[in-house]
């Protein structure tokens, strides 16, 4: 790391007035973590009081990490949909714009919804769900493209107390089936088809395949492209038809703060994806508070987060955070490179976006195309830039700051996870200087700690494993249906602490720099992928004896997927088998999991007790042939030279 990369860049004075100052941050942070007894609960109840509660919470944090039980605002009663929608209409902000929709096709129709219009749409959807039989606590699977109906469906579920489980529209039928079965979801909302980058995604067809062996009570189909799709009598209903005659009012169900709000599946280092469960009150307070403070949101501004609602970033910073704060949010159906590499900048100029929040992988991909695509677009409306999803390399940070932000506006690099519900480590614009590649400071209520492999706490300047020592309102409560796995995954490595799975460095200014995952999870284009899932997709091919999957550095994606595959005896490695295996992974997980490289190996390096030595395979995939470490425990060390030679040939 060169000195230049550690340099602090201050926020220019031209940034203007801000709600954040360093003194305020420090004072608030101290209160929020309860350094002075009793202040934390008061701080969080104050934050909570920006929301409407049918019954105000009198208690804040009642969580414990040993035994593991997370609980916030437990005696509070509220409805998050009321807070995100109706509250603003009731307060006379019904004509404020809520959602601006930019379609995949730049010549397609822009759709604008005020808060009042959003309310009407949400009520219509909620009543349609009720008519299908959906009630409080029922799990509703949402498999929609990036159209406003996605946000509407989520809010409609929340309104009637149903628990949504949104599945990213890029996941395959097998992945959908697993998620529907895991949470015993009996209702599905999908679209006929989706559009993305000029291509069609066959959403209803994927649902039909997923449901071939699963019974659900109803499938609600949004007419999006208008393509004819088969409808199963009694099960499938067109949304426009089913919603035609429903009532135009629908009360918001009063929910306990700890009632479930949503499940979101995410990959871990072992086994199938975990259904991370978030509840109502704490999540609402966390989404609202982080959105306001981190993006320093000012009334009337347009906020654009380029994530998909299928990921937690979309949940918290397209839907709940901005709408709870009464903000205007842009929803984009497309991708950064369609019709060409200037699409993001065109959209910013077209709608006058003020705050832009995207992922390093997108920045790197656009950076590679040169500055000509950025130049010539009026980006003067921008006031703040954000990054999320993976470590941002200083070069990409500089490019973003200079070419998109004209070196005149702050960049916030926000570290968080599906399990944290919202932003955890970031700088606050106005309060903190920025260090390219460094996420920055803990947000209110967040107490980070670095430990070594043995759990020894590392103080001061240090590099170690990132833990969080006390609960915060947005923390996931459990893994749906498997609290033991929740405890085992996050609280068993270091007793009494939440372990993030990330490595991290803390510098002399107490800035935190995330170095990446330290477990068998890889981050491909900001998407979290369990190597075990890819392995199991490969293993299920009849010609495969065994597979081991690791990440390797990739210029654009951050990490790519590298697979070592051993074939059954007598099977010849061929190009067509490579294609078949890639297809197998796409079919079982989805296109985002497509392997970048498949290397056939006569055998995989194992310990004498038969454990695959992934550490060594990782180094080979990374071309770090001199850093294999201790190979003395290998059962057959002679394998290694051949694996290295083949890796060299693969380029
Ligand atoms: C993992 C969580 C945060 C919502 C989207 C991803 C990595 C995320 C950053 C960042 C460095 C980051 C971590 C984390 N990550 N943001 N700003 N700097 N790393 O959520 O799919 O749950 O993935 O993404 O490794 O553990 P997720």
From TrEMBL:
Q: Where is the AMP-dependent synthetase/ligase domain?
A: 88-470
| Alphabetized InterPro entries for the sequence | Ac_CoA_lig (IPR011904), ACAS_N (IPR032387), AMP-bd_C (IPR025110), AMP-bd_C_sf (IPR045851), AMP-binding_CS (IPR020845), AMP-dep_synth/lig_dom (IPR000873), ANL_N_sf (IPR042099)
Q: What class of enzyme is it?
A: ligase
A Gene Ontology molecular function term of the record: acetate-CoA ligase activity
Q: Which domain of life is it from?
A: Bacteria
Presence of keyword Nucleotide-binding: yes
Query: Where does the record place the AMP-binding enzyme C-terminal domain?
Result: 533-611
Record EC number: 6.2.1.1
- Entry keyword set: Acetylation, ATP-binding, Ligase, Nucleotide-binding
- Gene3D superfamilies attached here? 3.30.300.30, N-terminal domain of ligase-like
Limits of the Acetyl-coenzyme A synthetase N-terminal domain: 25-84
Q: Is Ligase included in the keywords of this UniProt record?
A: yes
Tell me which family the UniProt entry assigns to this protein: Belongs to the ATP-dependent AMP-binding enzyme family.
Q: What is this protein's record name?
A: Acetate--CoA ligase
Per the UniProt entry, what species is this protein from, by scientific name? Croceicoccus esteveae
Q: What is the lineage of its organism?
A: Bacteria, Pseudomonadati, Pseudomonadota, Alphaproteobacteria, Sphingomonadales
Q: Which gene encodes it?
A: acs
């Amino acid at each position: 790391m060169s000195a230049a990369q550690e340099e602090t860049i201050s926020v220019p004075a031209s940034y203007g007035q801000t709600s954040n100052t360093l003194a305020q941050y420090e004072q608030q942070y101290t209160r929020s973590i309860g350094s002075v007894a009793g202040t934390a609960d008061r701080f969080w109840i104050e934050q909570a009081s920006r929301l409407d509660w049918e019954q105000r919470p009198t208690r804040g944090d009642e969580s414990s990490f040993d035994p593991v039980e997370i609980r916030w605002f437990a005696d509070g009663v509220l409805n998050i949909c009321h807070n995100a929608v109706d509250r603003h209409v009731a307060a006379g902000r019904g004509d404020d714009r809520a959602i601006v929709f930019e379609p995949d096709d730049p010549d397609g129709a822009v759709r604008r919804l005020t808060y009042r219009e959003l309310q009407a749409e949400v009520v219509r959807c909620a009543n349609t769900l009720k008519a299908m039989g959906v009630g409080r606590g029922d799990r509703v699977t949402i498999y929609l493209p990036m159209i406003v109906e996605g946000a509407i469906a989520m809010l409609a579920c929340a309104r009637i107390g149903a628990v949504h489980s949104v599945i990213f529209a890029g996941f395959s039928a097998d992945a959908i089936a697993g998620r529907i079965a895991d949470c015993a979801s009996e209702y599905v909302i999908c679209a006929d088809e989706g559009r993305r980058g000029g291509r069609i995604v066959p959403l209803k067809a994927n649902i039909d395949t997923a449901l071939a062996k699963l019974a659900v009570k109803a499938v609600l189909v949004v007419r999006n492209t208008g393509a004819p799709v088969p409808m199963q009598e009694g099960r499938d209903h067109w949304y426009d038809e089913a919603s035609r005659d429903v009532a135009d009012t629908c009360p918001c169900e009063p929910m306990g703060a700890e009632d479930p709000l949503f499940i979101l599946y995410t990959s871990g280092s072992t086994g199938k994806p975990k259904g991370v469960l978030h509840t109502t009150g704490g999540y609402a307070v966390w989404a609202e508070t982080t959105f306001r403070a981190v993006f320093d949101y000012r009334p009337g501004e347009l906020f654009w987060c380029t994530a998909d609602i299928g990921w937690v970033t979309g949940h918290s910073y397209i839907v709940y955070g901005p709408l709870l704060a009464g903000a205007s949010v842009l929803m984009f159906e497309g991708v950064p490179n369609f019709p060409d590499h200037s699409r993001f900048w065109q959209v910013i100029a077209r709608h006058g976006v003020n705050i832009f929040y995207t992922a390093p992988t997108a920045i790197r991909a656009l950076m590679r195309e040169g500055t000509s695509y950025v130049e010539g677009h009026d980006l003067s409306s921008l006031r703040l830039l954000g990054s999320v999803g993976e470590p941002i390399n200083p070069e990409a940070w500089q490019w973003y700051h200079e070419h998109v932000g004209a070196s005149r506006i702050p960049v916030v690099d926000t570290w968080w996870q599906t399990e944290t519900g919202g932003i955890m480590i970031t700088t606050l614009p106005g309060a903190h200087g920025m260090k390219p590649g460094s996420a920055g400071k803990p947000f209110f209520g967040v107490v980070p700690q670095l430990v070594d492999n043995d759990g020894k706490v590392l103080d001061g300047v240090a590099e170690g494993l990132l833990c969080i020592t006390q609960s915060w309102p947005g923390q996931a409560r459990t893994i749906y249906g498997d609290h033991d796995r929740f405890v085992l995954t996050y609280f068993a490595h270091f007793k009494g602490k939440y372990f993030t799975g990330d490595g991290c460095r803390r510098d002399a200014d107490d800035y935190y720099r995330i170095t990446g995952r330290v477990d068998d999870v890889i981050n491909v284009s900001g998407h979290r992928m369990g190597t075990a899932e890819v392995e199991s997709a490969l293993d299920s091919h009849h010609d495969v004896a065994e597979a081991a999957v690791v990440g390797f550095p990739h210029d654009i994606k951050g990490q790519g997927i590298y697979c070592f595959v051993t074939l059954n005896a007598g099977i010849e490695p061929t190009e067509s088998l490579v294609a078949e295996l890639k297809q197998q992974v796409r079919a079982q997980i989805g296109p985002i999991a497509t392997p970048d490289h498949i290397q056939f190996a006569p055998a995989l390096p194992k310990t004498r007790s038969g454990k695959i030595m992934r550490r060594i395979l990782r180094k080979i995939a990374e071309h770090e042939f001199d850093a294999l470490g201790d190979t003395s425990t290998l059962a057959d060390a002679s394998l290694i030279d051949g694996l290295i030679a083949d890796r060299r040939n693969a380029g």
